Amino acid sequence: xxQLVESGxxxxxxxxxLRLSCAASGRTFRSYHVGWFRQAPGKEREFVAAIxxxxxxxIYGDSVRGRFTISRDNAKNMVYLQMSSLKPDDTAVYYCAxxxxxxxxxxxxxxxxxxxxxxxxxxxxx
Length: 126
Fold this sequence. Notes:
Elements: E1 3-7, E2 10-13, E3 18-25, E4 33-39, E5 46-51, E6 59-60, E7 68-73, E8 78-83, E9 92-99, E10 115-116, E11 120-125
Parallel strand pairs: 2-11
Antiparallel strand pairs: 1-3, 3-8, 4-5, 4-9, 5-6, 7-8, 9-10, 9-11
């Protein structure tokens, strides 16, 4: 089993940058792919980015591609989401999640992810 805890959210001005962190516990963390999702008030949970268990082949949602970068450090059981050129539309609760599905399914949606953190809130002011 894997436990996930997100941190790093807060208030940032539009155009700014911020890094979210996802700390994982459990000896099997490196056997899981990890994704970031976000959910704004009144909206469905949206895929943001995902990274394979080895750290290769990151994938991104259309709304963040070119602005966000996902990475992981398996030695530290950490996954990061570096966000830049932030927009007010990026305001949401951000969640990290872990899964063992095939790589091609990582952007299929939240249902394919087995373990979730509690979320960290990001507000981008205009």
